[in-house]
Amino acid sequence: MIALGPEDGDSFWQPLPSNGYVINKISPYNSTYDAFSTGLQVLEPGAHIRRHAHERSHELLFCYQGRGQADVRGQAVSTWCPRP
Fold first, then answer.
1. I need a surface site. Which of 8, 38, 47, 67 has the fewest CB within 10 A?
2. How far apart are CA 48 and CA 60, in angstroms?
3. With contact defined as beta carbons under 8 Å apart, do 27 and 40 qualify?
4. Better-predicted residue by pLDDT, 60 or 34
5. Using the 8-state DSSP alphabet, how is residue 40 labeled?
6. How far apart are CA 78 and CA 74, in angstroms?
7. Residue of 16, 42, 17, 39 whose CA lies nearest to 29
8. What whole-number distance in Å separates Cα of residue 38 and Cα of residue 75?
9. What is the DSSP letter of 69?
């Protein structure tokens, strides 16, 4: 079992165009799971994550607040999340 607090995990600032940071919560470096990772990425309004792919894992996108759009296999998927 892994129990993590809000600030736990390695934090990395992302280069432009992301202009935000990512916190790696669970990864092969701090757990016994070789093919499972999870994290949190915070973006400023108007920023985006550069195009990338994951060869050996899946990616879970969760919008906590704001608007977002993802390009999944060439199809645009948009979401809007009101403030909690």
1. 67
2. 16
3. no
4. 34
5. E
6. 13
7. 39
8. 23
9. E
Nearest to 41 by CA among 24, 54, 66: 24
Share of the chain above pLDDT 90, in %: 0
DSSP 4: -
What is the rounded distance in angstroms from the CA atom of residue 61 to the CA atom of residue 68? 10
Mapped onto helix, strand or coil, the DSSP state of residue 39 is strand
pTM exceeding 0.70: no
Query: Tokens for 54?
Result: 């994951």
Please compute Rg for the chain using Cα positions: 14
Residue with tokens 């919560």: 25
Task: Summarize pLDDT for 13-48 with one digit per residue, the tens.
Answer: 877 777 778 888 888 888 887 777 788 887 777 777
Alpha carbons 25 and 45: distance in angstroms, whole number: 23
Q: Please give the Cα distance from 55 to 81 (Å, whole number).
A: 29
